Amino acid sequence: MTTSRKEAKRVNLFGVVLPLRFGLASPISSASLVALVALFSGDARADAGLDTGDAGDAAPDGAPAVPTPKIKASVCPEDPKARCERADFTVAKTEKINIDFNFDTGWMPAGSPVQVRFVAFLHGRTRVELSGSLDATWPEPLTLTPKPKAGTGVLAIDDGFELKAQGRFSVTVAGKDYGWTGDLPGIPGVDLSVIQSTTFDPFAWKDKGSPPTVKGETGTITLYKVSLTDKIIPIPGISGGFDLDGAAEFSATYDTLKIGFDELVAKGSVSDVTSTFASTRMLIAPAPSIDTIFTIHGEVSHGVKIHLIPGFYFEILGKKFDLPIADIPVPLPTSTSDWTFDDVAAHVPLPRLEVKPTDVDLGTIPVGRATALTLAVFDLGEAKVVFDADDPTKVATVTTPHMAIEPGLSDAIHAEINPDAPGLIDTTIVITSNDPLSPKQLVHLHGQAAAGAPDAGPLGADEPAVSQSGGCGCRVESSATSAKATTWSLSGAALALVFALRARGRSGARVARSTSRRPR
Predict the structure, then answer these.
(1) Does position 55 have pLDDT exceeding 80, yes or no?
(2) Burial of 236 (0-12, 13-18, 19+ CB in 10 A)
């Protein structure tokens, strides 16, 4: 989709309304002419608040998107196992282009007795916007994938130029030589400007199909029209005129070269995202979150072609002369500029699951009676932890097989063991979670089943005193976050992270042997 306002009498030039056409009926002073040229120069535009690199400026095709220098990820809605965090971002950059220079055509046509010369003063600005999301997925290593949002790319241009003209001639009339060189004065009809934009699908990787391109043409417009008399050319009896029609073509293309995770590349843990490699990976520390910075690197190429159509004619003593040129196309070299957007800082919360204990000595438990087991579980991260618990051998039956815990809260896994014959007990509860560092944790259960053994009473403290299921919603300390963490003892005196073995149907208690260790 492209838009153009080249025919409007007044245009919105990146948020500043400027007149596009000036009258031709009255003369203009040299001071006014200088001011007019300065109005459309790069310096004057910068003074008017149109400086480079301010992505918050108004845009040629409506208000620009707001860049997001800091983003925070949240759970990807399509992932039921919550092993994906996503953060949306927008980057935008507005900058003067590298065609702010003067271009001199030289005297044309070569060898002609009547010649003209033009100097073009060019200016221009370009804006590029991109939107997408950064996905962090796991298990380890953590994978970072920038994903584009279709249709959110914007490429916009605001380009134009001003002209100055000179003329000269060397002719012979009635045996007398006449010659003159000087400025061709006139009133500028317009500043040849184009404001256009186009939308595209990010990221527009280089060498992957046709790059997004925006083009604009001004059409042919009269730039100068002035009568030439002996007040301008000091030759008695001379009469004539000079007029100049002009047109301009402007274009710009954008390509993305890479998405760099620069501070991580420096550490040697990840590589750049390119058109070939859609994601990058990084090793993570045992922390509740990660922070990273990424930068989109691209390039913008500009093309300019100016069409000058002069009319230079005069008459001396009844003899007429004119300029034998119809159209002077002036293509300028393509200019390519680095286009690096501002850094985007991303914060990715992670789930961290801690289970206590990870080794349980059951002691001797009775045959034919269910013995209850409670394991304390903790979310030490900044994202919700989701997990499944099961005993593949079915020696223990987990009665809470699917659970989720919000950040900073605790809960309990409940299981039962009901031996049907005497003998050794040796089994493992497998806990599979969305913890990127410990996606699988094991709790080893071992002991003895004996016929006629007394029922086990409470073998430790009750369930966690502060828990998610109890409705408190409080934060509790754990051995991973506090030096004052609860210590597991034979007496079972634990506040938050406890386990207990209970037998149903009989009273009396004895203390079982239990040991625990922190998960890695």
Answers:
(1) no
(2) exposed
